[in-house]
Amino acid sequence: MAKPTRRDEPRYSSPDERRAAGKALRDAAPRDTHADWEPPRDRRDPIDLLNESNEGRLQQLIPIRFGRMMQSPFAFYRGSACIMAADLARTPVSGIRVQACGDAHLANFGGFATPERQIIFDINDFDETLPAPWEWDVKRLAASFVLAGRYIQLSETDSARAVRAMLRSYREHVADYSEMRVLDVWYDTINVDRFLEAIEADAEGVRERVEERLERLREKNTPEFLFPKFVQDRGGEPKIIDHPPLIFHPTQEIAPGLVSHYTNGFQSYRASLSDALRILFDRYHFCDLAMKVVGVGSVGTQCAIALFMASDNDPIFLQIKQAVPSVLEPYAGKSKYGHHGQRVVAGQRLMQSASDLFLGWGTGDNGRDFYVRQLRDMKMSAVIEDFSASDLRAYGRVCGWALARAHARSGDVAMIAGYLGSSEAYDNAVCDFAVAYADQVQRDYRAFVKGVRQGRIAAMTE
Predict the structure, then answer these.
(1) Beta carbons of 451 and 157 less than 8 angstroms apart
(2) Is 145 exposed, middle or buried (0-12, 13-18, 19+ CB in 10 A)?
(3) Distance separating alpha carbons of residues 429 and 167, to the nearest angstrom
(4) CB within 8 A of 351, min separation 6: which ones?
(5) More confident site: 224 or 253
(6) Burial level of 350, CB count in 10 A (0-12/13-18/19+)?
(7) CB-CB contact of 118 with 139 (8 Å)
(8) Which of 27, 123, 170, 179 shows a CA-CA span of 20 to 30 A to 230?
(9) Shortest CA distance to 49 belongs to which of 294, 297, 293, 246?
(10) ∠230-236-240 over CA atoms, to 5°?
């Protein structure tokens, strides 16, 4: 039986006490040690790690995954979270854990619609989410800005400025959240107005550009736009249009649930929803399902889109993604959830300020875990190819803010604030790390391309 708390015993530590405890962690893990990156002598072959990550994937799609990764070092980085996870496990940490994204590169942030139909900015990919050191997300995000800057041919100075803007924003927002009431942290969202306010000082004309993109998104996310784009009538039944190899109807070997129209899988998904959402889901009936290749790192896992109809003019598309163990598990410990779809959904709900109405999980007839969300629900991602140096710097600030808010919901934000402090010591260190690790990624990318040319890896361009 737990020992009862006496009235004269404190029930909690104050924010100041927790900040002091975080500051004390610098003794064991000084902030300047985060600058270090030197590949260890026993570092595993990156190609071996990539090949291992293909276990259980659809073999015919793996060359597409590697073909997308061949496009640039930045694309390679997006598809190789497993490599950086192994490397991050060898770097210093303070000992404070949060619900980590696990793949916090800048392309995994963006805008999307809340159930209230408001557009907010947040992290939008949680396939690798797991409790882990907060530093791992920060370092992966920092290195992504260096690689993105090089990809769009910015100077090293401009790329470093974007990294510093992100790191400073993260540190300052962590400090802000450490002063806030817990509920206020959970209520906090980055809506369009706050997003624009955060970046307008650097990104000239950004309001007009964002509003134009939002208007196009609203047009493209209507049933009138999506339905004819993805569906055709076959014998009076709406069917998803095949566009192989990126969209195709699966065989029974790939999807055993095909015969039963995926009844068992959708029933298990339905069981993950609240009572109210089950009533909503039951308004729709299943029409068709097709495999759809998405992303970079996800290519080869079983991803699909399913068409449901409530009436002739009332469709909805759900995206179904296979959930596999997080790349962080070998280094941060196994998930407490036996179902990896549940792991993804629980992590997403914990880190995001608002999540998709249809977010849930289930198990297919093939025994694979999956999670479900709406397809293209007003999702807006950064088009970094159009970025200027000031755009990248402004985007860094808002990504740092979003990551700080996500970490503040699950971790001891006052301890993180105490560890970071008010100086630029940690910023300087991680900026150095980001540059050094981006160099490592480019070396790994060259080895990867060489492996493709030597026939060690099969890659296919689309």
Answers:
(1) no
(2) buried
(3) 10
(4) 99, 101, 122, 123, 126, 129, 406, 409, 410
(5) 253
(6) middle
(7) no
(8) 123
(9) 297
(10) 20
DSSP state of 301: B
Hey, what are 42's tokens?
A: 């026993």
Asked whether the beta carbons of 322 and 303 are under 8 A apart, the reply is: yes
Dump strand ranges (E) for 301-398. 303-311, 314-322, 360-363, 369-374, 380-381
Distances (CA, A) of 353 to 107, 191, 349, 361: 18, 10, 8, 19
pLDDT 10s digits, 418-444: 999 999 999 999 999 999 999 999 999
Q: Is the pTM of the predicted complex or chain greater than 0.90?
A: yes
Cβ partners under 8 Å of residue 305, min gap 6: 230, 240, 247, 289, 290, 292, 317, 318, 319, 320, 375
Which tokens hold the place of 299? 């290519």
Q: What is the DSSP string of 153-170?
A: T--HHHHHHHHHHHHHHH
